[in-house]
Amino acid sequence: MKKIFSLFAASCFSLMLFSAEPVTSVQFLGTTGSQIDCGYNDAYSVLTDFTLEAWVKFTTFDGGYVLCNESAEPSANGYVLRATGGQMQLSIGNGSWQGVNATSGVVADTWYHVAATCTSSEMKIYINGVLENTTAISASVLASTQPLVIGEGTQWTDRRLRGFMADVRLWNVARTQEEIAANMSASSLTGTETGLVANWKMNEGEGLAVADATGTYPLTITDAVTWTGEVNGLQKNSAAKVDVLVNGRALSIVNNTGSRLNFSIFSLAGIKVLDGSVKASATFKLSTNLNGVYILKGIAENGSTIIKKVILN
Question: Which of 27, 28, 108, 252 has a CA 20 to 30 Å removed from the CA of 269?
Answer without folding.
Answer: 252
